[in-house]
Write a structure and sequence with these properties.
The complex is a heterodimer.
Chain A lengths: L1 H16 L5 E7 L6 E6 L8 E2 L19 E5 L1 H12 L8 E5 L8 H7 L7 E5 L2 E6 L2 E6 L6 H4 L11 E2 L13 H9 L2 H11 L8 H5 L24 H14 L9 H5 L7 H15 L27
Parallel strand pairs in A: 1-4, 4-5, 5-9
Antiparallel strand pairs in A: 1-2, 1-3, 6-7, 7-8
Helix pairs in contact in A: 5-10
Chain B lengths: L2 E5 L3 H11 L1 E8 L2 E6 L25 E7 L5 E2 L2 E2 L5 E2 L7 E6 L1 H14 L8 H8 L1 E6 L25 E5 L3 E6 L2 H6 L8 H17 L14 H5 L4 H5 L7 H5 L6 E8 L2 E8 L20 H19 L11 H5 L6 H13 L6
Parallel strand pairs in B: 2-8, 8-9, 9-10
Antiparallel strand pairs in B: 1-11, 2-3, 4-7, 4-13, 5-6, 10-11, 12-13
Classes of the chains: A alpha/beta, B alpha+beta.
The structure holds iron/sulfur cluster (4 copies).
């Protein structure tokens, strides 16, 4: 991690020093342990505040949307795929961004760490190789990285950036080793009633803060369907019908676009596993269209194109 | 009022006795998370916790609350047609006790009382009804966590404002600090506290206050010029990484913005109040199309100005934050309210006095 941080700083210093970009979008150390904060470095003096840790769990591609300046963005595998997606969808101009690619070791989930250390106040986390050393007053625990990775990172299929102008480390194994098919498997084995039940249980504690939407780089509509007010499309109450409408539609809007970056789950204050929905859709898109989102700037996303030999009748 | 004592062994029967007459709520474990929920016996209650992710404000200000409803236009109640006339919702049927409220959250209720029930014309009956029928039993914090900064926010780990009773864990017993008449009736059966327990509680308080990390200075905020602070140069930077999600406002014990929706289905309708958030552009969107909080920066600034400038200006210097640290822990991009308060206070300290 330390090496990645050093290389990110070096690259940022060079890019800003030579005036190649107006800012470098990366992360800086959070104000409390186990957090990192998105950070825009605009001058070479600020680059030493940049860092790379397992807690860089947001998706910086989100903060690229709508910018008109030249930005260098720090991106691991999934985030680089979202940048590709934004280029495909005309939201980002390739020539305006410099991608500082980070071969990814998998991001960490602070809730998993807290759950392993009940009642303990974590002060420091050191990530070295396959282990993470967590310490605080009166304790020090060495935990294998794989035990405390975010769920999506254990089944990641593309850990190396798919586009990058600079790479800050040697390429890592392309996949994380987990079985991606297993994520959607429970849903597939359920009948409709059981699915509905599982779906409602998944979202029963949702407070509709919309963090999942707001953290996601796919969600850039000027007016989100839940915010449409003239006329209003979606109820605002905590009734299951209103909450579920939001989640079903959000998931469908991600079809063929979601990179399984996990930013939505990381952002949720209630720890809701909304990837249960998007993973099933991701799998369907992969199986039905042979398509993985965000792999190729020139590919046509399946939900945006029509082919004359489409097997479905309704499009003819 | 006198201090009482309750041994931990007797907690079970104490709660059982209360349950005969009132509903009891407390932080409980549900699906591996600590949440506020109904308690059926003292065994459900968790005693070793920092605080819940969401504040207990939902007990008085539910996220969705029906304020009135009306039925079909041909409905009759004997002689009088009832249809299409809004009817009030029933008030709380049974009294309640909220156990193990943290002092910061109780202070938030104290603050919200002044906002929901300002005077005769501004008097929220649903809020007032639930507050009147609920007894708040606090649990003092003996081990505050590193994100707490209550002592900087006119509060503290053993603060009593807003509570009817404050429990202090003094080892094998709780010191029961009786603070109001409601508290007195709840604790009527308990014996008076011994000097030893009282002394130990004092020690716990000193220890807790000492272990709190120094919070931001706020000395210059209350007297600062609102407009200068509003136009301070740092807001763009504070807002840069904000996602404008509502997490910080939804988890906050003092945030109380809401949206009112009328829903009609056939001849039946209801008026529902739902939590809303200054972080949402829609919250301030006018029908004309104008939006006074048009940019992300406007909205972020509103959140902090409201808590640390507008509320103190209107409420005799009281801050709209109690230092619970929830937003510090839950903000997905780690925007730390303590840092923003520092920026605001530093700016206010160096501000020219308006002539
Ligand atoms: S839906 Fe979630 S996992 Fe998919 S791209 Fe959006 S934030 Fe990432
Ligand atoms: S982030 Fe979590 S709580 Fe907020 S709307 Fe999404 S699922 Fe619901
Ligand atoms: S929780 Fe953080 S990102 Fe979300 S609106 Fe609040 S400050 Fe912004
Ligand atoms: S602003 Fe943050 S720290 Fe202050 S009361 Fe609200 S949630 Fe707690």
């Amino acid at each position: 991690m330390q090496e990645r941080t050093q290389k990110i700083r070096e690259t940022a210093r060079e890019l800003l020093g030579q005036g190649k970009v107006d800012c470098v979008l990366g992360y800086t150390q959070g104000s409390i342990p186990m957090r990192a904060r998105p950070f825009f470095a605009t001058t070479p003096d600020e680059v030493d505040q940049l860092c790379w840790t397992g807690f860089c769990t947001g998706n910086l591609a989100k903060l690229l949307i709508g910018r008109t300046d030249r930005v260098a963005i720090v991106a691991q595998g999934c985030v680089s795929r979202n940048i590709v997606g934004l280029i495909q969808e005309g939201q980002v101009v390739r020539d305006h961004v410099v991608v500082i690619g980070v071969p990814c070791l998998g991001m960490l989930e602070y809730r998993k760490i807290e759950a392993r250390l009940p009642g303990k106040d974590v002060h420091e986390v050191l990530e070295v190789g396959d282990n993470v050393t967590v310490s605080g007053p009166g304790f020090e625990e060495v935990i294998p990285r794989n035990f405390i990775k975010r769920d999506n990172c254990t089944t990641c299929m593309h850990r190396n950036p798919v586009i990058s102008d600079v790479l800050v480390a040697e390429a890592v194994d392309e996949t994380a080793g987990g079985d991606l098919e297993k994520v959607a498997a429970p849903w597939e084995s359920f009948d409709a009633a059981k699915r509905w039940e599982a779906f409602n249980a998944t979202f029963s504690t949702c407070i509709r803060c919309y963090s999942c939407r707001d953290a996601c780089p796919l969600c850039y509509c000027h007016v989100c369907f839940v915010d449409e007010s003239q006329p209003q499309w979606c109820g605002k109450t905590q009734d299951a019908a209103d909450v579920d409408t939001f989640h079903i539609l959000r998931a469908f809007h991600c079809a063929g676009r979601c990179t399984d970056c996990g930013a939505c789950e990381s952002a949720c204050p209630m720890g809701i596993k909304m990837r249960r929905m998007t993973s099933k859709i991701e799998k369907d898109v992969r199986k039905l269209y042979g398509y993985e989102p965000g792999m190729d700037v020139n590919a046509k996303p399946p939900m945006t194109v029509f082919q004359p030999n489409d097997p479905e009748d309704f499009v003819k | 009022m006198t201090d009482k004592v309750l041994s931990k062994k007797q907690m079970g029967s104490f709660v059982e006795k209360i349950l005969e007459q009132k509903d009891v709520f407390a932080p409980i474990m549900q699906d591996k998370s600590l949440v506020w929920g109904a308690v059926t016996s003292a065994d459900d209650m968790i005693w070793d916790f920092t605080n819940t992710d969401l504040s207990p404000k939902d007990a008085f200000f539910p996220q969705s609350e029906c304020l009135m409803h009306c039925t079909g236009c041909n409905d009759h109640d004997g002689e009088t047609p009832q249809g299409s006339i809004f009817q009030a919702e029933p008030l709380l049927a049974r009294e309640r006790v909220l156990f193990n409220v943290r002092p910061c959250d109780a202070r938030a209720f104290w603050l919200l009382d002044q906002i929901f029930c300002q005077d005769e014309l501004t008097h929220d009956v649903y809020w007032a009804d639930k507050r009147a029928k609920t007894t708040l039993v606090g649990l003092a914090c003996n081990d505050p966590c590193s994100t707490c900064f209550c002592t900087s926010m006119q509060c503290g780990p053993h603060h009593e404002e807003g509570l009817d009773i404050l429990l202090v864990d003094v080892g094998d017993a709780f010191l029961v600090r009786v603070l109001t008449i409601k508290g007195e009736s709840l604790a009527a059966s308990l014996p008076e506290a011994d000097q030893d327990s009282v002394q130990r509680a004092v020690g716990c308080k000193e220890h807790a206050e000492k272990t709190l990390a120094p919070g931001p200075c706020t000395d210059h905020l209350a007297s600062s010029d609102v407009l200068s602070l509003f136009n301070a140069p740092f807001w763009e930077k504070v807002a840069a990484s904000c996602l404008n999600c509502g997490t910080c406002t939804f988890c906050c014990p003092t945030c109380h913005c809401f949206d009112i929706q009328d829903e009609i289905q056939g001849e039946v309708s209801r008026r529902v109040r739902n939590w809303d958030s200054c972080m949402s552009w829609l919250f301030t969107q006018h029908a004309s199309g104008h939006n006074p909080h048009n940019t992300k920066m406007d909205r972020v600034r509103q959140r902090f100005m409201h808590k640390f400038s507008y509320i103190p200006t209107r409420r005799k210097g009281a801050f709209g934050c109690v230092g619970c640290g929830r937003c510090v822990r839950l903000c997905p991009v780690n925007i730390d309210v303590r840092e923003v308060v520092r920026l605001m206070d530093d700016f206010a300290a160096n501000m020219p006095i308006p002539s």
